C-alpha cells in the first residue's frame, strides 16, 4: 500500500488547492471520495468472492473425503457380512432357518385407544377420592340424587 502520512496528505491538499482552486475543490473532493468508496467496495467484493471460492473448494474436498470414508465403511460391512455368510454356510445351516424361528420379543398389539376422546391430566382415582364429578347429570337425576331422604 501507499504510505501516506499527515505531512504528505497536507502537501497533496495544498497542491490541490492551488491547482484546482477553492471554488471547485469541495466538488472534486466529493467525487474523489465517492470513487475511493466504490473502489474499496469493489476490492471487498473481489476478496469475498475469492474467500467463497476457497471455502467451496474446501467443502468439496471435505465431501470427497466423507464419501470415501462412507465407501470404505460400506465395503468393510459387506466383506464382514460375506464372511459371516461363509461361516454360517460352512456350519450347515442356512439363513432361512434363522428367519423361520419365532421372534423373542412379543408381537405388537394396538392399544385400541379412542384418540378423539379428550383425556384430562388429573387421574381418575384422585377425582373419585375427592368427589369430583366425571360425568354430567341431567337436572332430574341431580334433584333425585341430592333430595333429602325422608326419615320415618
UniProtKB/TrEMBL annotation:
Residues 88-122 are annotated as: Disordered. The keyword Transmembrane applies. This is Sec-independent protein translocase protein TatB. Keywords: Cell inner membrane, Cell membrane, Membrane, Protein transport, Translocation, Transmembrane, Transmembrane helix, Transport. The lineage of its organism: Bacteria, Pseudomonadati, Pseudomonadota, Betaproteobacteria, Burkholderiales. The gene is tatB. NCBIfam families: tatB. Residues 89-102 have a biased composition (Polar residues). It is a single-pass membrane protein. The keyword Protein transport applies. InterPro entries: TatA/B/E (IPR003369), TatB (IPR018448). Its main location: membrane. Pfam families: TatA_B_E. The Tat system comprises two distinct complexes: a TatABC complex, containing multiple copies of TatA, TatB and TatC subunits, and a separate TatA complex, containing only TatA subunits. Substrates initially bind to the TatABC complex, which probably triggers association of the separate TatA complex to form the active translocon. It comes from the Bacteria. Belongs to the TatB family. It is found in: Cell membrane; Membrane. Part of the twin-arginine translocation (Tat) system that transports large folded proteins containing a characteristic twin-arginine motif in their signal peptide across membranes. Together with TatC, TatB is part of a receptor directly interacting with Tat signal peptides. TatB may form an oligomeric binding site that transiently accommodates folded Tat precursor proteins before their translocation.
Amino acid at each position: 500500500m501507499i504510505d501516506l502520512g499527515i505531512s504528505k496528505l497536507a502537501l497533496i491538499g495544498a497542491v490541490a488547492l492551488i491547482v484546482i482552486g477553492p471554488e471547485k475543490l469541495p466538488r472534486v473532493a466529493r467525487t474523489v471520495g465517492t470513487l475511493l468508496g466504490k473502489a474499496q467496495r469493489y476490492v471487498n467484493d473481489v476478496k469475498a468472492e475469492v474467500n467463497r471460492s476457497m471455502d467451496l473448494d474446501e467443502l468439496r474436498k471435505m465431501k470427497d473425503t466423507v464419501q470415501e470414508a462412507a465407501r470404505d465403511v460400506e465395503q468393510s460391512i459387506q466383506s464382514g457380512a460375506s464372511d459371516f455368510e461363509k461361516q454360517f454356510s460352512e456350519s450347515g445351516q442356512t439363513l432361512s432357518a434363522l428367519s423361520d424361528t419365532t421372534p423373542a420379543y412379543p408381537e405388537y398389539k394396538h392399544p385400541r385407544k379412542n384418540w378423539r376422546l379428550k383425556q384430562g391430566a388429573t387421574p381418575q382415582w384422585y377425582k373419585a377420592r375427592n368427589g369430583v364429578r366425571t360425568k354430567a347429570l341431567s337436572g332430574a337425576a341431580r334433584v333425585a340424587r341430592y333430595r333429602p331422604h325422608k326419615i320415618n
